[in-house]
User: Fold this.
Amino acid sequence: MILALVQSVLPVQGQTLSERLVQEDPIKLVQQARQNGDIVRGAILFHQGNINCAKCHRPISENDRIAPDLSRLGQEVTDESIVESILQPSKTIRQGFETVSVLTADGRIINGSVVSQDDQKVVLRSSQNIEQLITIEQDDIDAIKPSTKSNMPDGLANELKDRQQFLDLLRYTLDLKQRGPTDGASNEETMVRRELSDETQGIVLIKKLNCVACHDWKTAETLPPLQHAPDLKWSAKWLNPNQLAEFIADPQQIKPGTSMPHMLGHLDAPLRKDSATAIVHFLTSIAGNRIAGNRIAGNRIAGQADSEQHADLGHDGEGALRGETLFHSVGCVACHSPRDAMAIEQPLDDSIPLGDLTDKYDINALTAFLKNPHAARPSGRMPNMQLTHPEALDLSRYLLQPSEHGENTSTSSWEIDSKLARKGKQLFVEFRCVNCHTGIVDTASSLTSLGALADLDPARGCLSGDPGEWPEYRLDELDQQRIQAALRSLPTELTAKQEIDITLATFNCVACHRRDDVGGVTAARSHHFQTTNLNLGEQGRIPPTLTGVGAKLNEKWMRDVLVNHRSIRPYMKTRMPQYGKPNVSRLIELFQSNDRLSDTEFATVDDLKEMQELGLKIAGNQGLNCVACHTFRYEQSDTMPAVDLTEMAERLKKDWFYQYMLDPPRFSPNTVMPSFWPNGKAIRPDIVGDAKYQVEALWQYLLDGRQARTPRGLIVEPIELLASDEAVMLRRSYPEIGKRGIGVGYPNQVNLVFDSEQMRLAMIWKGKFADPGGVWRGQGHGTVRPLGDHLVRFARGPEIDDPVSPWIVDDGRPPHHRFKGYSLDEKMRPQFNYEFDNVTVRDYYVDAIDSSKNAPFIRRTLTLKSSSGESSISFRAAAGKTIKQTDDGNFLVDDRLQIRVDEKHVGTIVNQPNAQHLRIPLKVNEGVTQLTLEYRW
Assistant:
């Protein structure tokens, strides 16, 4: 009976959307797209979601282009060939966009498109990650072969909800070709990084080294706030005094790259050590060091119980792991070197080194510093990253792990000596420490200048590199050249552009932001800039450009962002640092007074109420569907959490809003914002008014801010996908299952999800089938929501495996299993086909009714066959905290799921760590082996 039922399954393979569309006439698809495709929905699909066509098909320079600019396709590209390119991208690869396969000497195969090639190396753009450039030395290459695969992925249409979405996308793509390049596309963005001049970088160094603490320079009055040295009272209170003394004795030796000059270099070694020690005694005497008098061992504080030391040092493995994630995501690695799995710095050329922190801080000191760095360093160069106490503690745990040199175990004692403290105060003045570290002694104001900067001889004194009774900076040759260039041409007055450049370089804003071709995230650091929503593309993870930012943002909003840590991008994991109001107020003034746009001609407002009504329509799903992507009054859209519409008018200046809306790529080449008014023409001519009139209507509507009326389409009703006379299937992401989940709803109100990634029954439930809104509205990044109740989940990992050496389960695909599709019976119920080594499996489910209880249940039949000899395999029927055998062949899992095993097989309860498994051993040969299970719950 069972064999006959399995054989009744029809040999109709389940087809994907791509496979179905390929069989259609492309001419008819083009016709239907032009007639029935929604161009606005198509624009949104083109720019967002899994497909993100705009990421590759963007109007950038020819050399950087990785896919054709669709607005510049020639007449030889027919509408039908565009259909073919979407559905079968590798069938015809356009010249100039070919890919290659590189076989390396160690056996690796690397696929990508050639960016550059010479006798020494080949640079490829990875086919897996188009943002990644891979450099391969010619000596490491065995062969380079043309690839038959396109950079454009196969099965792209499968990321769409249905045929209508394909028609929407095709309609927009055809429109791109038809209307030609936009104004923004003609301004090709080459993304060349411009370096600041030597003179400007020299001024940045003069400011960083605080040369004006000793030398006169009238222009310093117009500079951004001068460099303030660290607050030594804070340092003396919180830091290890022994390490502080070593640092003062030779700063560069203890922390290479520090801006602290060597002030005692002219002394012999014993006197230098004694002098540094005396200065620290003075500082700790006025600061009240927390640990003075205690024995110090590395960053441990003697006198504490071992358990307390253990906690203080952060030997909390989970905390250190959380700290590692924070360090590499919130923005620390924008300035500092990333670290490897052993927490060892991996130096990059433009990094600010941290070095080994374990001798300098204990866990409490570093936590206090990270929570409020401006208390220790008021200059703001170390910004406040808005860390909570738990975050600062976890980050400290990570940074204070033992270095590659091993944990410091040296011990010494520290007790304040009043005599040495008095001597230290005298030396503090004598060595002119008071020039930079103000507020420590009262004599600082009486110190005289050591001459004007413009009169200095670079071959003498501080810049000479020779030891003497002056600060010794140990600058490299390049820095010396930059300072000398600045000294030769010190301006009497800085231009606004110079002030902005100097300020951005001083605070290293250019590590994250780009302005006028200066700065921006480098390729080496790019992957550390992350987002919580991939639909947003590059805008979701890379900080915005500062080019023209003063013409973009209202002053109050800019001040709130730079001073009051206001944010509108919660999806961006990298945080906006806070540098302190005194340090950035001038920058706000400079942006606001100097950034300008070209004149803007606004549309005339005759009937305000009528125009606001039109703006309401445009924002909703009957217009341009802004709410499909933008947050509205803190409520996120299903597609993505793009910036809140109800904050637009508060944030943006009207002329910038106008110009951006009319040509988004001009301001942001990588934007996911579609061009709804390309070349000044409305993409929806059926909406009242020309382009400027529609933009004005939207602006007038947005002026109501939080009080703006809710557009249509924001409140979305749930979708119910239900089975009637036949089974219904949905291949999408399900909770705790990857994108290869195949859900099946049966007419008798039982449902299941088969995980085709790991070849397992993943979950079952009763009642209604599913709400697919999460993936249909979320452009593929959401999950299907099972409806109904009594949901049961099954363990991860394949159910059929080797009984001796099973696969160690992770989130990936088991290496010896292969999914082979499915077939449908006359009631559209699927039979899943897969293989394990040489064993083929046919996995078939039917919904049945238990007549004694009038309750539905699932009967599952597995048909197995070996292609070569007999194989011993193990089938995991269930896993749970408790499994009990109630009678022959019947098992109760966690007191809720009953599983019946057919009489031909024996189930065995196996104890595993923290769980029990119900396993069924199977002998499979070239004949047919069948196993039948029934699930009741």
Summary: The chain is about 30% helix and 20% strand.
